[in-house]
Specification:
The chain has 272 residues and is mostly helical. The protein is elongated and about 60 Å long. The protein folds into 2 domains: 118 residues, no CATH class; 109 residues, Leucine-rich Repeat Variant (Alpha Horseshoe).
């Protein structure tokens, strides 16, 4: 899975209570940041603000006439009150109103991701409608927004997006189907099997792990081939981790030689 999520860093918690800056000042700094990394130095501090006055200020940002302000507003409101869940329903109400009228792709991505953090089933039909959007980042937002939902519409949307032309969209949709839900069906397995031959290594690994999680023993040969194709000590650790996790799920003796080959190399690396 390619990590493109922006989430509140819990290490921020120790300094938020002593930060002397007002919510208004922090909002202005987040808006004025020159890049995403700079903005996300500020935004997690705002996530720990939890009064209704804070909420009102962020809601005003979400209702701005400027797309960048709406994007920052969505980034904040998606996790505002983190740890307390004070604004869960009210925040989702704001985000659902935003997603219906938003046309800017960057803001739309932020709204969809924010809905993913809130995990409210009301968002599913709104996110599902984004699956055919022309912008890759919007489709990625839709995938993130639908993670963990077991609803049929959510699953069918992830199945469609697991075949997306954009690799990040495909990867995360495959991750969502394979590892973030417990549902199992012929359609889910067929979508995962389609990705076993994906050109992207991590997407292939996610697909095999998802099939192994469903105890689909037909994936054993693909796992052996995948493990044997990786040179011990000179491998992509993300792919290897996924394949080893899949092998552990299945715990089949036929996998043992390929697994031992890599475990020996990992043990040697640890010893250095």
């Amino acid at each position: 899975m390619q990590d493109e999520d922006k989430s509140t860093d819990l290490s921020v918690y120790g300094r938020v209570h002593t930060d002397p800056r007002s919510t208004d000042e922090l909002i202005r700094l987040a808006q004025a940041a020159t890049d995403e990394d700079a903005a996300w130095e500020i935004i997690p501090i705002l996530h720990y603000r939890n009064t209704w006055d804070d909420f009102a200020q962020v809601r005003a940002l979400c209702e701005s006439d400027e797309a960048h302000a709406r994007k920052v507003g969505a980034d904040i409101i998606g996790q505002l009150g983190v740890g307390e869940d004070t604004f869960r329903e009210a925040a989702v109400d704001v985000l659902l109103a935003m997603i219906e009228r938003e046309s800017d792709p960057v803001a739309l991505n932020a709204i969809a991701v924010a809905l993913g953090h809130r995990k409210d089933a009301r968002a599913i039909p709104h996110l599902a409608r984004l699956k055919d959007h022309s912008d890759d980042c919007v489709r990625f937002g839709a995938v993130f927004g639908l993670l963990t939902h077991e609803d049929e519409m959510a699953i069918n949307t992830l199945i469609a997006l697991s075949a997306d032309p954009d690799v990040a969209v495909r990867d995360w949709a495959t991750f969502g189907l394979g590892s973030m839900i417990e549902a199992d069906s012929p359609a889910i397995r067929a979508a995962l099997w389609e990705r076993v031959a994906d050109e992207d290594d991590v997407t292939r690994g996610e697909a095999m792990r998802g099939l192994a999680h469903r105890h689909d023993r037909d994936v054993i040969k693909s796992l052996i081939d995948g493990l044997n194709a990786l040179e011990p000590g000179a491998h992509d650790t993300s792919l290897l981790s996924l394949l080893l996790e899949a092998a552990e799920e299945l715990d089949d003796p036929k996998l043992s030689p390929a697994v031992r080959r890599h475990n020996r190399a990992l043990d040697d690396d640890d010893a250095i």
